[in-house]
Task: structure prediction
Amino acid sequence: QVQLVESGGGLVQPGGSLRLSCSASGGVFSYSTMAWYRQAPGKSRVLVATISTGGSTNYADSVKGRFTISRDNAKNTVYLQMNSLKPEDAATYYCNLDGSGWRGGLYWGQGTQVTISS
Result:
């Protein structure tokens, strides 16, 4: 059973930074593509960033140059460094694990809330 636990959310002022973490247990982390999604109130969940098993990254246009996704396979953890935060970045951020590389499924964390306010 794969479990994903996010942490690092909180309240930050516009222009500030946060680093989200997602710790995985179960499955085969190093063979999994990892991603961060976010969902603002009343809106659909959208993709923020992905990182492949080989470390290749992709970002939504809205966060390019400000957010960085990374992974530590030794710790089974994926990170999202968020800099220059804007009010529109406020959302619940969800970690996603794609286990298709080892015949697993798609798994989600419980989410961590990011609030941007001065």
